[in-house]
Amino acid sequence: MTERKPIGVSFETWIDRQIREATERGEFDDLPGAGKPIPGGGKQDGEMWWIKRKMREENLSFPLPGTLALRKDAEDSRTAAVGAHTEAEARKIIEELNGRICDAHGKPLSGPPVFQPTLDVEEVLTEWRERHPVEGLPASPEPPPRKRRSFFRRGKG
Q1: Picking from 109-118, 124-133, 142-151, which range would have the lowest pLDDT averaged per residue?
Q2: Which residues, in sequence order, are CB contacts of 70 under 8 Å at separation 6+?
Q3: Each residue's pLDDT tens digit, 38-60
Q4: Which SS3 state, helix, strand or coil, does residue 12 take?
Q5: Long-range contacts, stretch 83-86, CB < 8 angstroms, 24+ apart
Q6: Which of 62, 126, 135, 151 has the most crowded CB, counting CB atoms within 10 A?
């Protein structure tokens, strides 16, 4: 606004006059979206329609509470580690994640009470090795499955 509303003039006529003068000066020419229909046809998708649209336009994900965000981060990090190019890179990803999980255990996080255990680095690296076999070396055969003895025969040598 460039000036204060004069005394005795209604807001409606004062605003209408400012819009008309700005239009005459050409201040509304070349605005983005000029002459195009309103996105969504003017329909609103609920209370937070504008937030949802902005998040979609900015390619953002919905913010999760701290505990759930940590769980999602653990899943994403495990997937990234298994798909890493080198074993050292996979180890680094899991160790960084475990550090964040240990830090989170020491402070309260928002959201539902979800305990996220640290990931076993060797377990993830074993999975990484299975997906990235070394060329030229024969794959090690799997050991035969152990025969389990029944509960009642375990004590009888």
Answers
A1: 142-151
A2: 100, 101, 104, 109, 114, 116
A3: 766 666 667 777 777 777 788 77
A4: helix
A5: 83/131, 84/128
A6: 126
28 token code pair: 């509304």
Tally of CA atoms within 13 A in the half-sphere of 103 that contains its CB: 8
Q: pTM value?
A: 0.48
- Cβ distance 63 to 54 under 8 Å? no
Burial of 124 by CB count in 10 Å (0-12 exposed, 13-18 middle, 19+ buried)?
buried
Dist CA 4 CA 19 (whole Å): 15
Cβ 116 vs Cβ 101: under 8 Å: yes
Give the ranges where the chain is alpha helix by DSSP (H): 11-25, 49-57, 66-82, 87-105, 121-131
Half-sphere exposure of 147 (CA within 13 A, CB side): 4
CB 15 within 8 A of CB 22: no
Residues 6+ apart with CB under 8 A from 69: 63, 111
